[in-house]
């Protein structure tokens, strides 16, 4: 089965870049434009892995992670944070919220694809 | 990153939007004041705009842009966190930073070197707001993955024993022990042993619980710190024990910067231990069938206003087709009329419905191309700031009617002329602050932009509250440049409009700011090319106003179908103030050929359209019908035509691209009977008429320009 990736980012450019990389690599790619959209899309798409931005309108990335990791429908799919920040503070916050990993923008296609494949245990 | 050009283009498109959001946010912040409750949201929006530009710029390796955006963002973040207050000075700096950011985006887009000096100046001002701690934390983009090069020094390898027992929460947060092992294997030689003793009997087995533990033996030259960094994200979610076999004391854990490890070139996953105890990767996914599997679709419909991005070519093709539809509809109407059916015939009713529908479709399609003038106005606020910086004046910009919608092409082609007019308004219009104080005015000048729809046209005004035009100097310049004879007697508005003469702009009259070799005649030509007209009015001591009148769309116009010397033509209704069927006694002869008509006590020159187009010799003609048209600033002329047949929308077909430019004619159209009709340009006809007056005796450029005749 094709691996489904949900990317939550308010930047169209980043979404486009991710789409290009990941669709080329054979992932089924879905996007959401902000945190609230992301949570809604998550339920809809049921992705195998989530990539989320931190700085977003409506709900930030921490909010997304906390929401997805809590409640009766909490998920255990890997959630990667994709952001330009790399400060320990922010990283700790993301980790405490339940993030699986951290990717600093700009990302490198090959490593991202490789990480996603391994995270999802899928050669897709 | 080797982004395809199209994605790069999309990035710059997005930048435009983000810059607009930035300008809007800053304006909002200024309007509400730093203490307003909503200002935090606005700062957030501004921050995000800058942040998104930075993120995208990083992806394309646009370092100058990234650096600037980063510093800008850091200062914004301080405002966001409350450690800095956005006072007037800081707001000004933010505006300038926004301008520089736009410059850098532009430079990056066009792949030209940016004005590093200007950016550097703003950058260093921004940096003044940053404390030392911010400055130290210099911004670097890290590629994802471990930076193995730096910390790998020439050390003898150590062997580490790692005991790793994940807790349930580790899996719940989407972690995958395999990944960690992969990352460790990158560092050296790794042996992994799984401890499966924790797995309970099958009936006690909880598939979501964690039962496995691992013992890893890693031989590496890397430091223990790095090992901890690999486990950074899971350390709280497992029992982890790392010991150096050589029994050295474990180093304290320093903060790490290592992110998700790069996992390229690793042993096949099948060689790694069994992971059957991993929980179901996605309990939610298991609950519902994956309905959308195999189908990718992006949903971009959040936010207040869902939008659809469409290739402009497609819209233009559609507009063209709709144009054909309108012509076709007119033809059908004509054919049916020719059948002379009783007026109650069904086909007549259906035809009426068809006409309405066609018109709706047309309006709908035109609306696709319509865009608010807001971005254009926002760009002008930047011009005002740049111009006032360059001239040492202070100016604020006030806009009105931002949401007025105008055809996209019109907006695009208006940008340059407007820039020029706005620069002019600041440079020549506004006085220096001390002169303003001396005149009892606010030292800060005001540039006002307004846009409005009025009777099928778009009115745009650019006004300043400066000293007004210096008519003596304008006239002197025009005389000195031989544009008007020394003894010319011109009204005030005629003098004002001399500014639009080609060749008027001089080094003397133009400072290095608004200079750039462009005169107001270029502005005028640009506006006229859009089917519009521009004029200037001025009040001494109170300021000047440029007025631009433009058609709503470039594709169709409402016109009168008229006949002139047996030729069928179309004249835009928008330019017609009034139609008059004159009696012979209303017309008065002046000289041999010229006539005037008395309209409510004013004498209005009569322009014989046929004679001016060279279709008929001038001379006494039947009274015909007079179409009164406005000639700026407040004059009128009467165009004489033979008859008005119809009022309808016509599709504009360019003559220039197919045939050539004809004075007095702006374009052509196809009528219902399939015949081609010329679309007249009333203003040019009036100018032609003025030019034909032998008594005027002015050199050609002025003859073309002096069309203000109000007969009083």
How do the helices and strands line up, and which of them pair or pack?
The complex is a heterodimer of chains A (124) and B (712).
Chain A (H helix, E strand, L loop, with lengths): L3 E5 L3 H13 L3 E5 L2 H11 L3 E4 L8 H8 L10 E5 L4 H10 L3 E4 L4 H11 L5
Parallel strand pairs in A: 1-2, 1-3, 3-4, 4-5
Helix pairs in contact in A: 2-3
Chain B lengths: L4 H28 L6 H21 L3 H18 L7 H23 L5 H13 L3 H5 L11 H4 L6 E9 L1 H5 L4 H11 E8 L17 E8 L3 H7 L7 E7 L38 H5 L24 H28 L6 H24 E3 L1 H18 L3 E6 L4 E3 H22 L3 H6 L6 E10 L2 E8 L6 H10 L11 H6 L22 H10 L3 E7 L3 E9 L4 E9 L2 E6 L3 E5 L6 E4 L3 E6 L2 E7 H5 L11 E7 L3 E7 L1 E9 L13 E6 L5 E5 L1 H10 L8 H6 L7
Parallel strand pairs in B: 6-8, 13-22, 17-19
Antiparallel strand pairs in B: 1-3, 1-4, 2-3, 5-7, 8-9, 9-11, 10-11, 12-13, 12-20, 14-18, 15-16, 16-17, 18-19, 21-22
Helix pairs in contact in B: 1-2, 1-4, 2-3, 3-4, 3-5, 4-5, 12-13, 14-15, 15-19
- Tell me roughly what share of residues is in helical segments of chain A: 40-55%
Provide the spatial order of strands within the biggest beta sheet of chain A.
2-1-3-4-5
Q: What's the tally of helices of chain B?
A: 22
CATH superfamily of the largest domain in chain B: Histidine kinase-like ATPase, C-terminal domain
Q: How would a textbook summarize the main sheet of chain B? A: 6 strands, mixed
Main CATH class of chain A: Alpha Beta
CATH architecture of chain A: 3-Layer(aba) Sandwich
**Kindly, what is the distance between the CA atoms of the first and last residues of chain A, rounded to a whole number of angstroms?**
8 Å
Summed up, the domain count of chain A is 1
Major interchain interface with per-chain residue totals: A-B, 73 and 69 residues
Shape call of chain B = elongated
């Amino acid at each position: 089965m094709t691996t489904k990736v949900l990317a939550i980012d308010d930047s169209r450019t980043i979404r486009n870049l991710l789409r290009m990389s990941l669709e080329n690599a054979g992932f089924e790619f879905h996007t959401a434009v902000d945190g609230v959209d992301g949570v809604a899309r998550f339920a809809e798409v049921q992705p195998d892995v989530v990539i989320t931005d931190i700085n977003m309108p409506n709900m930030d990335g921490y909010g997304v992670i906390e929401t997805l990791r809590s409640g009766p429908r909490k998920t255990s799919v890997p959630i990667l944070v994709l952001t330009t920040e790399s400060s320990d503070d922010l990283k700790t916050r993301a980790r405490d919220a339940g993030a699986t990993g951290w990717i600093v923008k700009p990302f490198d296609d090959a490593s991202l694809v490789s990480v996603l494949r391994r995270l999802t245990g899928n050669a897709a | 990153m080797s982004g395809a050009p199209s994605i790069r283009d999309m990035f710059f498109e997005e930048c435009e939007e983000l810059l607009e959001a930035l300008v809007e946010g800053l304006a909002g912040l200024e309007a509400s004041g730093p203490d307003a409750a909503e200002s935090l949201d606005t700062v957030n929006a501004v921050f995000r705009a800058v942040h998104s530009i930075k993120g995208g710029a990083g992806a394309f390796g646009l370092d100058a842009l990234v650096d600037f955006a980063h510093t800008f963002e850091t200062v914004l973040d301080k405002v966001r966190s409350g450690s800095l207050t956005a006072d007037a000075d800081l707001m000004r700096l933010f505006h300038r930073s926004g301008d520089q950011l736009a410059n850098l985006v532009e430079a990056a887009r066009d792949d030209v070197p940016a004005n590093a000096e200007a950016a550097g100046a703003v950058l260093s001002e921004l940096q003044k707001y940053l404390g030392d701690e911010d400055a130290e934390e210099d911004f670097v983009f890290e590629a994802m993955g471990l930076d193995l090069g730096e910390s790998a020094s020439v050390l003898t390898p150590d062997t580490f024993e790692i005991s790793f027992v994940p807790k349930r929460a580790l899996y719940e947060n989407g972690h995958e022990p395999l990944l960690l092992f992969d990352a460790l294997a990158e560092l050296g030689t790794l042996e992994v042993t799984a401890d499966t003793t924790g797995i309970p009997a099958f009936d006690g087995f909880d598939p979501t619980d964690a039962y496995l533990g691992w013992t890893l033996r890693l031989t590496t030259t890397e430091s223990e710190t790095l090992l901890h960094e690999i486990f950074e994200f899971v350390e709280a979610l497992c029992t982890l024990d790392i010991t150096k076999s050589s029994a050295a004391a474990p180093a304290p854990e320093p903060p790490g910067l290592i992110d998700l490890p790069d996992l390229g070139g690793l042993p096949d996953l099948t060689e790694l231990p069994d992971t059957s105890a991993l929980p179901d990767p996605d309990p939610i996914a298991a609950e519902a069938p994956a309905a959308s599997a195999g189908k990718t679709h992006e949903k971009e419909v959040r936010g207040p206003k869902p939008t659809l991005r469409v290739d402009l070519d497609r819209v233009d093709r559609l507009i063209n087709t709709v144009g054909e539809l309108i012509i076709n509809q007119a033809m059908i109407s004509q054919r049916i009329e020719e059948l002379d059916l009783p007026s109650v015939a069904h086909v007549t009713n259906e035809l009426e419905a068809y006409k309405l529908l066609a018109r709706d479709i047309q309006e709908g399609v035109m609306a696709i191309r319509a865009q608010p003038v807001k971005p254009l106005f926002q760009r002008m606020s930047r011009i005002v700031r740049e111009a006032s910086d360059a001239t040492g004046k202070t100016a604020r910009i006030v806009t009105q009617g931002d949401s007025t919608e105008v055809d996209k092409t019109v907006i695009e082609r208006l940008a340059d002329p407007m820039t020029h007019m706005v620069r002019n308004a600041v440079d020549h219009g506004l006085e220096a602050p001390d002169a303003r104080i001396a005149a009892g005015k606010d030292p800060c000048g005001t540039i006002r932009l307004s846009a409005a729809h009025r009777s099928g046209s778009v009115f745009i005004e650019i006004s300043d509250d400066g000293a007004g035009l210096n008519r003596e100097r304008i006239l002197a310049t025009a005389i000195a440049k031989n544009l008007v004879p020394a003894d010319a007697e011109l009204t005030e508005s005629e003098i004002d409009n001399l500014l639009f003469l080609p060749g008027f702009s001089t080094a003397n009259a133009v400072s290095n700011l608004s200079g750039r070799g462009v005169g107001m005649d270029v502005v005028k030509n640009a506006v006229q090319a859009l089917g519009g007209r521009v004029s200037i009015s001025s009040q001494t001591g109170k300021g000047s106003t440029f007025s631009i009148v433009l058609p709503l769309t470039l594709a169709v116009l409402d016109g009168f179908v008229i006949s002139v010397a047996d030729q069928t033509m179309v004249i835009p209704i928008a330019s017609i103030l009034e139609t008059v069927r004159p009696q012979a006694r209303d017309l008065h002869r002046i000289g041999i050929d010229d006539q005037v008509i008395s309209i409510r006590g004013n004498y209005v020159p009569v322009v014989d359209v046929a004679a001016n187009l060279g279709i008929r010799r001038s001379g006494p003609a039947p009274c015909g019908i007079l179409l009164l048209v406005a000639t700026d600033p407040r004059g009128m002329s009467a165009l004489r035509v033979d008859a008005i047949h119809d009022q309808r929308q016509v599709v504009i077909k360019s003559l220039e691209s197919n045939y050539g430019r004809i004075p007095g004619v702006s374009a052509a159209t196809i009528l219902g009977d399939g015949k081609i009709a010329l679309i007249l340009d009333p203003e040019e006809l009036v100018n032609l008429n003025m030019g034909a007056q032998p008594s005027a005796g002015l050199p050609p450029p002025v003859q073309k320009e002096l069309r203000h005749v109000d007969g009083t």
